[in-house]
Specification:
Oligomer: single chain
Number of helices: 9
Helix content: 55-70%
Strand content: under 5%
Distance between the termini: 68 Å
Length: 195
């Protein structure tokens, strides 16, 4: 005999459908043209169902992006035993993600939203930025313990040196974000990490 659907199961199904619909739509339309109505129609739910969980379009889009990009353990860097190779993979991956032609304009719109919406900005810092920085810090701490980088490494400064150049170049729209740029930024950061 089939199980009777519970409110919690229906609720989770609706939530999953909303996030899946949003993830599809952000690849199809610009952020400005994406509306809660379109998300609700694609997910097969009412607008009120979306607003029950999320206060704004930016919030549901942010959750959909997090859901599609994060693994079950959260952000983590590989540890191959070669800190330069692991960081190169991180920075090159960042360049690829930030310059994806089908997604870059959406990322830029979300970046603006996080600057204008204090609640969304706080969620961005707490749920994405700080966990990503913690993952880099964990990998750097392992590199310190293994003797791959200097023992007196200032982790916060090291993270800024690693992530800052790519993020700044992208956020200011300066262009030139390539794997070669990522490699050059890494080489400059490694000079400090290994000094």
């Amino acid at each position: 005999m089939p199980e009777t659907p519970t409110a919690a199961r229906r609720s989770e199904r609706s939530r999953a459908a909303i996030l899946a619909a949003t993830a599809e739509l952000i690849r199809e339309v610009s952020y400005a043209k994406l509306g809660i109505e379109a998300i609700a129609a694609r997910a097969g739910v009412g607008k009120q169902t979306i607003y029950r969980w999320w206060p704004s379009k930016g919030a549901v889009v942010f959750d959909a992006m997090l859901e599609s990009d994060s693994g079950p353990e959260g952000p983590a860097l590989p540890d191959t035993g070669d800190i330069a190779a692991d960081l190169r993979q991180l920075l090159r991956g960042s360049v690829v993600a930030l310059t994806d032609p089908g997604f870059e304009s959406f990322l830029r719109a979300m970046y603006i939203e996080t600057q204008q919406d204090a609640e969304l900005g706080a969620a961005y810092r707490e749920r994405l930025l700080l966990p990503q920085r913690a993952a880099v810090a964990d990998r750097l701490a392992a590199a310190v313990a293994a003797g791959e980088v200097r023992a007196d490494l200032d982790l916060e400064l090291a993270i800024d040196l690693l992530l800052g150049p790519v993020q700044m170049r992208w956020s200011l729209g300066l262009g030139g974000l390539t794997e070669d740029y990522a490699d050059a930024a890494l080489d400059a950061a490694l000079a400090y990490l290994r000094a």
